[in-house]
Each structure stands twice: as C-alpha cells, then as structure tokens.
C-alpha cells in the first residue's frame, strides 16, 4: 500500500543527513563478529568431515562444494543480522514517503554490508587466517607443513631424479647430483612460469641430465620427463580450477550477502517504525 505520510517536507528534514552512521557501524561490527564466529564453527565442521585414512571422510570435490555453500550461508546470516540492526537502531524518520523509507532502509542495510565486508577484509583478516591455519594444522602432519615453504617445483624435480634400488647411478654422478638438481629446478621454474611447459630444448637437456644421474636409458629418461611434466601441468590445472571455483563462491557470497542485508534492513526499519503487524505491511499512524 503506497502511502504518503505527509505531503509537506520541512526545511529541517532536508538539511539533516538521512544516513545514520552509528546504526550502520553497529550493524557492520555485529555482522563481522558473527562471520568470524561462524568461520570458527565451519573450521570445526571441516575437521570433523575429513580423515587421513582411505575411504574415510568426504572427497576433495565434496569438501570444496560444501565449503562454498557454507561460505554463502555465513554471508547471508551475518549480513542479514547486520542489516536488520542497521535499520532497527536508526532514528525514526518523519515527513517521509513510505517509498523513500523503504529505499533508505535498504540502503542502510547495503552500506552496513559493505562496511562489514571492508572490516572483515582488513581488521579481521588476520584472525580468520589464523582460524583457517589452525584447521589446516590438524589435517596435515608436521613434516608436510614444514615442507610447505619449499618451492613447489622442487617436488617434481625430485621425481625426475628418483632412482630405483635395482639401478645404480654412475659413481661420478653422485658428486654432481646437487648441481644438476639445482640447474633443472631453475630451468623448470623459469619455463613453467613463462610458458606453462618445458621448452623443447630444455626438455631434451633435462632428459640427458636425468639419464646421466639415474642410470636410465635416454628413452626412459625422456619418458620420465614427459610423465612428470604432465603431472605438473595437471597439478597446476587443479590449482587453477580450485581458485576459479573459490572466486565464484566468493562472488555468490557477496551478492547473496548484499541482498540479505538490504532485505533484512527493510524489515528492521518496519519494526522500528511499527509498520509490520502480523506479517502484513500497514500504513504508519502519526
């Protein structure tokens, strides 16, 4: 029902800002705190859903999708509460058309969501990172965590120079092993950074080094280089796909959070003005 509360608008009303920053800040702080609490709860749920044992816990794909859905739920819940408080705690507007009140309340909810988002991304980012890191520390063993600071390419270089017990590398190769590994690591990192693959000349040279250091034939060394290169490219593609999915989930969380904050703020403003009775919008009486 479109109702004009009062046709006239006083000069005093026009001079006063329609933004209630105190209520917006209060709603944003509450939304950020609720988000942090829900992130801690989600970390606990994540730890309880995974297991290092085979055929136990959820798969990586299921875990990623569940984490994305939970991210959206956290955004909707915290933003809705923050938006509701931003409108419920504002001052009461007089001489304002109901359509204008609707717009101002939804704007308060949207601004509160934006404030909470910036607050979470700056001040609370360290706390959220600490919670996620604590969850990860319970999943990975200490040795795996210590190796996380090592260049990721080192793992693939180690696989290139892996030797079988039955094969004995030449005696002269042992002294040059570390130098060869360092050279291949530099070639590997540079080529994958620039081209996403080993250059043809580098691939042939690396295969010769692998053959010399491991005792493999040239054909077997080339096959090993091809296999490890394919594995590295597959790992990079999985990382890219995971980052893309995370970006999409974060975008969905932002959009749903903004909508929930604006919608909840409208209801909070109606409760503030006493215009929400028995789930039915009625005109305000002055």
Radius of gyration: 30 Å
Overall tally of domains = 2
Which term fits the overall shape?
Answer: rod-shaped
Portion in beta strands: under 5%
Label the structural class. mainly alpha
Contiguous low-pLDDT stretches (5 residues minimum) are: 1-12, 135-150, 165-169, 171-175
Distance between the termini: 16 Å
Helix content: over 70%
Query: What's the count of strands?
Result: 2
The ordered H/E elements are HHHHHHHHHHEE
The helix count comes to: 10
Biggest β-sheet, characterized?
2 strands, antiparallel
Average residue-wise pLDDT: 74
Q: Give the spatial strand order of the biggest sheet.
A: 1-2
Structure description:
With 286 residues, the chain is an all-alpha fold. It folds into two domains: 19-146 and 238-281, no CATH class; 147-236, no CATH class. 72% of the residues lie in helices and 1% in strands. It has ten helices and two strands, in the order ααααααααααββ. It has a two-stranded antiparallel sheet with strand order 1-2. Strand 1 and strand 2 (280-281) form a beta hairpin. Helix 9 crosses helix 10. The longest helix is centred in the C-terminal third of the chain and has 56 residues, at 218-273. The chain is rod-shaped and about 90 Å long. Mean pLDDT is 74; it is low at 1-12, 135-150, 165-169 and 171-175.
């Amino acid at each position: 029902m479109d109702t004009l509360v009062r046709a006239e608008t006083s000069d005093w009303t026009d001079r006063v800002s329609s933004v209630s920053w105190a209520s917006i800040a209060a709603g944003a702080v509450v939304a950020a705190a609720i988000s942090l609490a829900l992130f801690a709860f989600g970390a606990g749920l994540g730890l309880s859903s995974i297991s290092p044992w085979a055929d136990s816990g959820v798969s990586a794909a299921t875990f990623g999708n569940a984490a994305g859905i939970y991210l959206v739920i956290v955004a909707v819940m915290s933003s809705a509460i923050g938006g509701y408080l931003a409108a419920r705690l504002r001052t009461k507007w007089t001489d304002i058309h109901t359509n204008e009140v609707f717009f101002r309340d939804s704007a308060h909810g949207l601004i509160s969501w934006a404030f909470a988002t910036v607050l979470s991304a700056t001040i609370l980012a360290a706390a959220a990172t600490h919670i996620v890191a604590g969850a990860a520390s319970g999943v990975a063993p200490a040795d795996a965590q210590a190796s996380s600071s090592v260049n990721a390419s080192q793992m693939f270089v180690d696989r290139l120079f892996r030797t079988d017990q039955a094969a004995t590398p030449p005696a002269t190769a042992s002294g040059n092993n570390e130098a060869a590994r360092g050279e291949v690591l530099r070639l590997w990192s540079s080529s994958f950074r620039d081209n996403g693959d080993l250059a043809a000349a580098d691939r042939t040279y690396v295969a010769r080094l692998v053959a010399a250091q491991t005792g493999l034939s040239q054909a077997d060394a080339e096959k090993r280089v091809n296999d490890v290169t394919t594995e590295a490219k597959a790992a990079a593609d999985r990382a890219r796909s995971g980052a893309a999915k995370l970006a999409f989930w974060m975008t969905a969380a932002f959009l749903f959070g903004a909508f929930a904050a604006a919608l909840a703020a409208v209801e909070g403003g109606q409760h503030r003005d006493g215009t929400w009775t028995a789930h039915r919008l009625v005109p305000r009486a002055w």
